[in-house]
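Reopening: structure tokens for the nicotinamide-adenine-dinucleotide complex, inputs below.
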Amino acid sequence: MSSPLRYIIVGTGGFGRYWCSQVLPRLRDLGKAAAAAAVDISPDALKNAQTFLKLPPDKCYSDMAKAFDENPADFAIVVVPPAHHESVVDVALAHGCHILSEKPIADSMEACCRIYHKVKRAGRKMAVTMSHRFDQDKQSLQRLIQSGKYGRLDYLVGRNTWMCRKYAAWGNFRYQIPDPLLIEGTVHHFDIIRSLADSDAKTVHALTWNPAWSEFKGDCQALILIEMLNGVKCLYEGAKANASALNGWTEDYWRAECEGATLELDQRRLRVIAGRLNQQAMIEQVPLQQQPAWMNPWLAERFVDWLNGADAPPNNLEDNIQCAALLFAAIESAHTKQIVDVQEFLAGRLKA
Ligand SMILES: NC(=O)c1ccc[n+]([C@@H]2O[C@H](COP(=O)([O-])OP(=O)(O)OC[C@H]3O[C@@H](n4cnc5c(N)ncnc54)[C@H](O)[C@@H]3O)[C@@H](O)[C@H]2O)c1
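Re-run output (same inputs, fresh job):
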């Protein structure tokens, strides 16, 4: 087996704590990657790198450029808010690093496209951790749809509704940025839709708003209609300021209406339904798939395997730029109240 690759993690507070405590120790235990250094502007956040990654204080930096200058690394892990992703990518590429980044690629389509071109020009590899698409329940549904056993997929319905209307209940920065639901939440569901439909998006029509009782500055509720390039239709409901969390993170609702059956995933319970409910309906509870790891631990492992010569994982940059296009086309749709052609939106920005 090849020796462990070396990484620098930028952002060790917030979600970075999860990376330090749950994702990266597994990579170390598998012998696949080890920490070279950690970076965060908050000394408190750097304690996570010391505690969980066992990095000495002199390998924990507040100065990102210094961390990369002093510590040779194979890849960078980006876990800072989206508005700062590009500056980390710039430093990482200048030091020859590959990049494993938190979602979304960046906080605007222009920045996503700049990152896309910079990574391509540098000849480096980049993947984006779309955690929820790679969760056990969504993967189980995807595999069930794609088994072909229930015929063609006609349409999808999805819901992720939450109650975090009060400031800081969903981390501070999300209450201050424009379009927090779409940028920070729905981006996951857009990628789930792409994977369940096995297609990129053709058009999107998004209605977003901010109710009077919300403490978000930007829109935190949405109803969205998407048509995919392969003809699959999708209806999505997302909310952060509801009075209940009917289908919160990791317990979201997805329904795949297939030619031969309704496949329903609700709070991690997967059912196949055919016929009229309560009247001779066929209802089968399907166990979720099993494998050693899901979400970020699985994605981090696949990324390292990719760097070591395995096939590109499905969350690679080339694929994820389509997710970014759907995200920012949806934001454009919400702002203009028009249906947006996602592929035209992407082509226009990627070549600019
Ligand atoms: N995949 C998921 O399920 C998931 C969940 C939560 C967050 N995220 C993503 O993780 C990223 C970070 O979000 P978060 O919730 O941890 O944010 P956060 O604000 O809670 O924490 C970000 C950390 O980055 C540090 N930081 C901020 N700017 C920095 C800079 N320029 N240089 C160095 N350190 C800096 C902060 O001090 C803090 O410790 C975002 O891209 C977010 O979308 C993903």
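DSSP finds ten helices and 15 strands in the chain. The domain at 5-124 is CATH 3.40.50.720 (Rossmann fold). Marking as resolved unless the reporter disagrees.
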